[in-house]
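#structure-requests
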Amino acid sequence: MITKSAHPLDHLVLPAQNLDAVRSRLTSLGFVVAPTGIHPFGTENACVFFTDGTNLE
């Protein structure tokens, strides 16, 4: 049971050295990967969003 004080998991972060390889692998597994997000501090991410509001980053 989730209470008002609970903090449900909303996303998992999977660090990777080769974002293109991860994107390719996730796509080959049938996931729809969002366009790459580029951050001003030098990191990038690619996310898979699920219908329940969670995501894989």
